[in-house]
Amino acid sequence: MPEARTPADIEADIVRRRQDLAAALDEIAVRVHPKTIVGDAKAKAAAALDRSAGRAYVVANRAVSDVRAQFVGEDGAPRLERVVPVALVTVAVVGGLFALSSRRRRG
Predict the structure, then answer these.
(1) Is the Cβ–Cβ distance between 86 and 71 less than 8 Å?
(2) Mean pLDDT confidence for 5-33
(3) CA–CA separation, 2 and 5 (whole Å)
(4) Dihedral sign, Cα of residue 32, residue 36, residue 41, residue 44
């Protein structure tokens, strides 16, 4: 059979439950406070931005490394068989654009 509780035990239990309830209500009040909600939203947005920026950096870095590997050998020396044709095409395109631009200015 369960032990009989004294009035002091019951009163202590009520006080403890009131304190627990007060702590829970305080925590709820902090969670639903507008400043807390705004702060949480800012933190989530900053984390999402950091993740996106990190992913973009990784993608860009990988792309630069891939392009660099096409024009630079493993020893760090330029791969002239690839650099020279690209340089010639670039000079031809820029020269052509310059010629078209000066032709439009004249006439």
Answers:
(1) yes
(2) 95
(3) 9
(4) negative
